Amino acid sequence: MKIENFEEKYRERVRFVCLSTGPDDARTNSRIGAYIENTYCNYYIDNEPENCFVLTDDDDNAVGYILCAKDYKAYSRRFGKYFGIIRKNAGINLIEVLAEQLVLKLFSRKYPAHLHIDILDGYTGQGSGSLLMNRLITRLRSEGVPAVMLIVGSGNTQAIRFYKRNGFTVLVHAFGATVMGLKLQESR
Question: Fewer CB in 10 Å around end: N or C, the chain?
Answer without folding.
Answer: C
